[in-house]
Design goal:
Helices cover about 30% and strands about 20% of the residues. By secondary structure, the chain is of the alpha+beta class. The strands form two sheets. It has a five-stranded mixed beta sheet. Strands 6-7 form a two-stranded antiparallel ribbon. The structure holds iron/sulfur cluster (SF4) and FE2/S2 (inorganic) cluster (FES).
Amino acid sequence: MSTNGTEGAKRRVNFKILRYKPGFIDPPRYDTFAIEVDERMTVLDALEHIKATQDSTLLYRHSCHHASCGTCAMKANGREDLSCVINVFDLDSDNVVVDPLGSLPLIADLVVDMAAFAERFAPLGMTLVRESEFAKECEPPAGIEQYTRYEDCVECGACLSACPVANTTPFFIGPAGLAAAYRALTTGDRPAKQVFAHVDSSEGVWRCHGAMECSAACPSDVDPGGKIMALRRELVKYKVKRIFGSREE
Ligand code: SF4
Ligand code: FES
């Protein structure tokens, strides 16, 4: 309903969704589902409606429904975003193609394996649990207090999927991992030597081609592409300083 109490606009939209079930729907294929959407409906709403009314085997991930957990990222008409914030009307098409994120192993339908994404944070010790998540009444497992994450980032994987370099190699640290490294450097969370040892490689900052697709895709304004460029500048300054330092000795 619109704010003046009248019926809002509706339209019929075909959702062409990638399907994959190892051993059952294999190789992947697209299935098309036609549903009526209203002007407030998101792509995630549409998937939930399709699952409830047409195909209960449809698999996708979500949790919060309000752009904070990062679990629902996928592609709609070729663009990465959180499916809980993609308004179907805004796509301005009667045909919406829904794909899982790229550059990550496909598990089933729209679900990808995020372990390969999380591993990109691991060399800097940024994994799994935020310090603020420790419950006071519980004893955390040994060593876990050193684990931190990059809190500006909802770890959705959209940047990795949008990155043209990450689409060609699984070894590139990738936009979110490099943005997290920049933050670790500038906040002093990790020693400069450790950060630069991690990123100064052909699979680190130097692999980025500056396409900036990651920053365009990021739903959380992290600007990972900008952070990669800033990290490069800091790395160059670090190296120059080391060269001048050794000449003065
Ligand atoms: S940097 Fe942005 S796009 Fe990449 S994982 Fe974090 S929130 Fe998602
Ligand atoms: S469901 Fe949590 S970000 Fe979309």
